[in-house]
Structures are given as structure tokens and as C-alpha cells.
Design goal:
about 725 residues; alpha+beta; Arc Repressor Mutant, subunit A; OB fold (Dihydrolipoamide Acetyltransferase, E2P); five-stranded mixed sheet; about 30% helix
Length: about 725
């Protein structure tokens, strides 16, 4: 028996005999064969202990992780220092600062905590989330002092190594590699980012802190020289020619990379919808420096005033971008859409298009609203937008009829000046055109996923698993506290949640309840297996429509070409690709989460910077969550701030979790999730991305009046849980 087989046998024995006295002798007698001796067994058992798969208790018995009350997870560390590690279908384990070893926020750790316990201890750190940190030099009058930007690490003893030629000044911000985590943490200065007060340095620091580098390596830039800037006749000859179709791209006003184009006409059966996607895989060859860098980045990152692209601008804004009046290579998903919005048939093929116009959401929305001037300007496109809207609306209606969930969720739009200073914060507009394009892209993604699954082609799928019953039950209790009943069975179905949201959409509490339900959902992620998408109520789903800014889409294109267009029959290649797809799915999920975290960190910073200029200003907002230390209030412009319990000085308030409320001991006055209140801006810290409010007026109370404007409020931080929205996608 080989060493790994012997280890598997030990683990199997422990799994099958949880109540036995599993001493070393008992296990050895059970698993040892003639092929192995006692020393082999001892070595295997020792390796399992070193790998934290087997543990030895005080009674001299061995246990696996589950039996020992040990599980693996990622630790989140709050500013207070308290750590949290999530468990399946149970409340998160709390870990005091003294029981965290030297774990840092985001590290993968092993935690000892029995099922019935709420507090645990970190016993090992399996993987470090951070390999580098950002710090700043400050002159406090007694020489320069180095301080990490991460407030959670301010008490950590440090040792900073730097090159003799490096001479920092007050305000110099630097990037440091972590050379040693324990004892005094040892850092080495690797890059000067700039002065902390220089325009754009704050955003750049957040990006680098998340290991997102705006610069591309030299070997990637070198490869760009061999990529053409126009399409040749040789490249076109074996493709379906769609250049005579009326085809347009529809994107935001400030978009520069156009990776999807649409064409739609009425036919006897309903509509013929063509979604054509930039053929990035034609230019980014597997194994090239460009490909390796794209896989490492996994996605583009969209922060307040800039984009860090997955591919260099020469590609993303050039030959791979479906610019107007230019031939471009594409992959097309052509669908026959029935009048009820279902897709009767589809085909996927290599194509070439010639986009007629670069349209914006704003202009398409105006055309759909009847703007005669714009209709005249784009009259050469015929009735494309009206036909496309009819088709997309039918697709959405059909998807909703199957149970797809529509949450109330808004994106923030932060406007900055030329120096990066925020001058306005508001909800991002999301009109008919935005929804229309989303519907077309989802339809194409579903068709391609269906094709990949039933053709058994290696792929990267976008999956969204059903929420845990524990979280849903917690939500049901919260909903009942707010006066709305949700009934589910032993299994959660998306159409049940959809009908619930529809039943309360006219209620003042709808934005908060929608946000709370969204937080109950699992995070969408990538996987090599087709598990389905709960939120969209689809059995097959993947990302096909954005290969310029998402690596999984590029992989899907590559697999389509290899196994469908080129009919590759190499079984060894297929086996390799299946493993690659699994690896790409895992790494892309991790990098997507990092990218989203960086985006929200920048948003929080700029929102706090914006509110720091508005101290003392008064607003109305809605309570989105209540805790033992206060409650969070969100304004109509998506900005959220904390009202600390210490600022409620008219009574002694106690947090009542089952009521989602703070209740005054004497007055019985209640501040509950979903209530509207009047607040005044009390403090804002851009460095930490935090905002604090205080109540004003008569206890900050606003009479519970139902009006349409309350629907505008929703929880921007709900996006932290799911990563929804067009940047990253469902």
C-alpha cells in the first residue's frame, strides 16, 4: 500500500468508527497490511497530524477534524479586533484577539470550536490572504515614523527593511512585501507609491493593497507588437459574415471597451436575436504572456475614476473592441425567441461584424421614451431599438415566470473632479436600455451553457447555490417582525422568494427587506461543474459575453473553438482542459472577490471624503440594520453611516435582536430596521472609509408614511455579499 493509500485508509477508518477508542494500536491493527510495516503506519499518521487532518486528544485517541471540533474557514477581523469565521447552517464563530494566533483579515485558518459553542480558537493558519501591505511615513516632530494604513494592524509589532538609497519624507506612501508574519512582522519596502496627498494616490494605494497593479509586465507589452490592429481577409473567410446586419453596441457614456453587440429583427415566430461577442481568444493565445497575465488578473477592476483592465488597452480598446464602422471578429449566439420570451432554438458560430453605431444607454433610453431628435439622428438604424426592447422584455418576462428573483439593489455613481475629489454621489441610473442589454446577455449565457453541458465540453460555469435554510429562517423571523410573512418548505425555491418580493414591493419596508434577503443568498462563483443558478432560476448558466474583462468568458470561448468549431477529439487534451477549467474557476472566483473588495473600499473612501465636506448637514434616511453598538442609516444617495448607541442620550437603549431594534428602557422608544429617521452628519474618515451620523429633530423620528420615494432607498452594502451588477455580473 502506497503512503497516500495508507493515509486514506486511516482517515476512512476514523470516519467509519467515530465512537470507538481509536488509539494508535487500534487503528494500526485495522489498516496495516502485509505490504506495510509499523514504521510506515507511524510515518503516515505523523504526516496526517502535520497536515492538520488528524488530531490527538488527552485520552490518547486520534480523531479527524469533525470529531475534534475543528473546521476550516476564512477569518474576518473587525476594527474592534474580534474575529469571525462562518459555519454552514450555524452562526459564525467568534474569535477573541488573543485566540487568533497571528492571523490577519482574510486568512484561511483552522478553528477549534464545538458545534454548540459560539467562541473558538485559531489553531493553525493554512493560507495567507496578504502577501504585501501599504504603509505611510509620518513626521511627528521626532523623526519619521512608519505606520501601516490598515487600522486593524496598528498594534502589530513591525520591523521595516529598506534599501539604503531610499530616503522617505513626511507623507511618503510605500508598498511593502511581507517577509515574516510572526514575532515582529518583517516588511521590506519594494515600491514608492507617491505622496499621500498627490491626486490619485489614494485610489492607487487601495488597488496595490489588493494586489491589483495598473501596470503590465514588459513581456506582455512586447507581445502586443505582434498583434494586428485590423482584421484581414484571410481571417474572415471561414466565418459567417454578419457585416450587412444592422448591429450596434450599447454601453455607458464613459465606456471604451465594447465586447458585446446586438442585432434583432422580427420574424414570423417572434424575433431573431443575435448577440455577437468580441473574439478575444483569436488574439490571446493560450500559454502566452498575455494569457498568463489575464488569468492572473481574472477580471477588470472598476474603481471610482479609472479602470484597471484585464487586458492592455491596446487590445481592450483596440482590435478586441467592437468599435463602430470597423470590421471585428466575433463569436455569435443566434437565438430564435418566441413571443412568450422562450428561446426555441439557437446556434453558436464564428462570425465577423461591422458595428453601425456605438450607442449609449442614455441615448437609447431617450429614443425608447420618444425623443424625436435622437430618433431622426439614428433613423438609419430603423426600428432596431423598439424591436430589441420588445424581444428583451419578453425574455425577462419568461425568466421571471420561471422564478428568477429581482432584488431591489442600486449602484452608486461617484462623480470626481480632475484631482479625484468627489463632487457628487448619487444612485447610478438604470433604465430600460440597461435592463434590455442585461436580458440579451443572460439569454446568450444560458444558451451557451446549455450547449457546453450537453455537448460535454470542458467549461467554466457561473453557479449560484441555494441559500442555507438557517439564513432563510433568520430572515423569516426578521420579516415577521416587520409585519410580512414568508412561508417556505424544507427546500427553498426561487419562485417562492420572487413572489414574496412582489407581494411587498409597494411597502415602505421593501428596500430593506430586499437587501436583507439578498444578504441571505450565497455568493455567485465559478465552477467546472454545471450546478445551476438559483437567483436566475436556470439549470445551466455561464459567462460568455465579456471576454475583454472576465477570464472565465475567455476560457469558454477557447473551449468552444477547440471542441466545437475545430472538433478536437484528443482525450488527453480534454483531460488536461477539464483540470484547467477547475483551476481557472477557483482562481477566478478568488480574484473576482478581491476586485469587488477593492471597488467597495474605493467607494467607501470617496463617500467618506464627500461627507467630510458636509459635516452638520441634515438628511432623511432609512435604518438598514441594528446592532448592539448602534444602527446604520442609508440616505437616498446610497451613502450609509452609523448612529452610535452612545449618541442616543435621551434614554438607556438596549439591543433586542428578535425585534431588530434598540428599545429605550424608560421611554420604550424604538429604533427598528426599516424605519425612516432624520440624521445629521457628525464625522467622516476617508482613511478608514467610515461615516457617523447623529439624530436630529424630535428624536430623529419620522412618521411612518408610505410614499413612492422610499423605494429609492436600498442598501448599497448588499452588493458586498453578492457582487451583482453589470461590472461583474450574475
Amino acid at each position: 500500500m502506497e503512503r497516500n493509500e495508507l493515509k486514506d485508509a486511516i482517515l476512512g477508518y476514523l470516519e467509519d468508527h467515530p465512537k470507538d477508542k481509536n488509539t494508535a494500536r487500534a487503528i494500526q491493527d485495522a489498516v496495516l497490511t502485509e505490504e506495510n510495516d509499523a514504521q510506515d503506519f507511524r510515518d503516515a499518521l505523523s504526516e496526517l497530524q502535520n497536515e492538520f487532518l488528524v488530531f490527538f486528544n488527552k485520552d490518547g485517541e486520534f480523531m479527524n477534524r469533525k470529531q475534534a471540533g475543528i473546521f476550516e474557514g476564512k477569518i474576518s477581523i473587525a476594527r474592534s479586533g474580534m474575529g469571525y469565521v462562518n459555519r454552514d447552517d450555524r452562526p459564525a464563530v467568534r474569535i477573541d484577539a488573543d485566540d487568533q494566533l497571528d492571523a490577519m483579515d482574510g486568512d484561511t485558518v483552522l478553528v477549534h470550536c464545538q458545534l454548540w459553542q459560539m467562541y473558538g480558537q485559531v489553531i493553525a493558519i493554512l493560507d495567507r490572504a496578504k502577501k504585501q501591505l501599504i504603509g505611510t511615513y509620518y513626521d511627528h516632530g521626532h523623526g519619521l515614523h512608519f505606520r501601516l494604513d490598515d487600522e486593524k494592524l496598528k498594534q502589530r509589532p513591525l520591523k521595516v527593511l529598506l534599501d539604503e538609497s531610499f530616503h522617505p519624507v513626511d507623507g511618503t506612501k510605500v508598498l511593502c512585501a511581507i517577509e515574516k508574519y510572526s514575532g515582529p512582522m518583517t516588511l521590506r519596502v519594494t515600491k514608492v507609491i507617491g505622496h499621500k496627498d498627490d491626486p490619485g494616490i489614494d485610489i492607487l494605494s487601495v488597488l496595490l493593497d489588493h494586489d491589483i497593479d495598473p501596470q503590465f509586465p514588459d513581456d506582455v507589452i512586447e507581445e502586443l507588437k505582434d498583434i494586428p490592429d485590423s482584421v484581414s481577409e484571410e481571417e474572415i473567410k471561414d466565418r459567417t459574415d454578419l457585416r450587412d446586419d444592422i448591429t450596434v453596441t450599447i454601453d455607458g457614456d464613459d465606456s471604451k471597451d465594447f465586447d458585446d453587440a446586438v442585432s434583432c429583427v422580427r420574424i414570423e415566430k417572434g424575433w431573431r436575436l443575435r448577440v455577437s461577442i468580441a473574439d478575444v481568444s483569436h488574439y490571446v493565445k493560450e500559454g502566452s504572456a498575455l494569457d498568463k497575465e489575464a488569468a492572473k488578473r481574472a477580471c477588470s477592476t472598476y474603481v471610482t475614476d479609472r479602470v484597471v483592465p484585464m487586458l492592455p488597452h491596446q487590445l481592450s480598446n483596440g482590435i478586441c473592441s467592437l468599435n463602430p464602422d470597423t470590421d471585428r471578429l466575433t463569436l455569435t449566439c443566434e437565438m430564435t425567441v418566441n413571443p412568450d420570451g422562450s428561446v426555441e432554438e439557437y446556434q453558436i458560430y464564428e462570425s465577423v461584424i461591422h458595428s453601425n453605431e456605438r450607442m449609449t444607454y442614455a441615448n437609447v433610453n431617450r429614443i425608447l421614451d420618444g425623443d424625436e431628435q435622437l430618433k431622426e439622428k439614428y433613423s438609419h438604424l430603423g426600428n432596431l431599438f423598439e424591436v430589441l426592447a420588445e424581444c428583451a422584455d419578453a425574455i425577462r418576462s419568461y425568466r421571471v415566470s420561471k422564478g428568477a428573483i429581482e432584488f431591489s439593489s442600486t449602484e452608486s455613481k461617484i462623480i470626481v473632479d480632475e484631482n479625484g475629489k468627489p463632487v457628487d454621489v448619487r444612485m447610478a441610473d438604470r433604465g430600460h436600455a440597461e435592463r434590455m442589454i442585461e436580458d440579451c446577455m443572460i439569454a446568450a449565457n444560458v444558451c451557451v451553457a446549455n450547449f457546453m453541458k450537453w455537448q460535454d465540453i470542458p467549461s467554466v460555469y457561473r453557479i449560484h447555490e441555494e441559500p442555507s435554510l438557517r439564513r432563510i429562517r433568520d430572515f423569516i423571523k426578521a420579516s415577521e417582525v416587520m409585519g410580512h410573512k414568508l412561508v417556505i418548505g424544507k427546500t427553498v425555491y426561487p419562485n417562492e422568494l420572487q413572489k414574496y418580493l412582489q407581494s411587498i414591493e409597494d411597502e415602505p419596508e421593501f428596500p430593506v427587506l430586499s437587501m436583507m434577503l439578498l444578504r441571505c443568498m450565497q455568493k455567485a462563483r465559478y465552477d467546472a461543474s454545471c450546478i445551476g443558478h438559483f437567483g436566475l432560476a436556470e439549470e445551466e448558466y455561464l459567462h460568455f459575453t465579456s471576454p475583454i474583462r472576465r477570464y472565465p468568458d475567455l476560457v469558454v470561448h477557447r473551449m468552444l473553438r477547440r471542441y466545437s468549431f475545430e472538433s478536437n477529439m484528443d482525450l488527453h487534451q480534454r483531460e488536461e482542459d477539464e483540470k484547467k477549467c477547475a483551476d481557472y474557476a477557483e482562481s477566478s472566483s478568488v480574484r473576482e472577490r478581491v476586485s469587488i473588495d477593492a471597488e467597495y473600499a474605493c467607494d467607501d473612501m470617496k463617500k467618506a471624503e464627500y461627507m467630510a465636506e458636509r459635516l452638520g448637514k441634515k438628511y432623511e434616511g432609512i435604518i438598514t440594520s441594528v446592532t448592539g453598538f448602534g444602527f446604520y442609516v442609508q440616505l437616498d444617495n446610497t451613502i450609509e453611516g452609523l448612529v452610535r448607541i452612545a449618541s442616543l442620550d435621551d434614554d438607556y437603549y438596549e439591543f433586542i435582536p428578535e425585534k431588530l431594534a434598540l428599545i429605550g428602557e424608560g421611554s420604550r422608544r424604538m429604533f427598528q430596521t426599516g424605519m425612516k429617521v432624520r440624521i445629521m452628519v457628525a464625522a467622516a474618515d476617508a482613511h478608514n472609509g467610515t461615516i457617523e451620523f447623529v439624530l436630529y429633530g424630535k428624536n430623529g423620528m419620522i412618521p411612518n408614511r408610505k410614499k413612492a420615494s422610499v423605494k429609492k432607498a436600498s442598501a448599497a452594502k448588499s452588493r458586498r455579499r453578492t457582487g451583482t451588477g453589470r461590472k461583474h455580473g450574475r
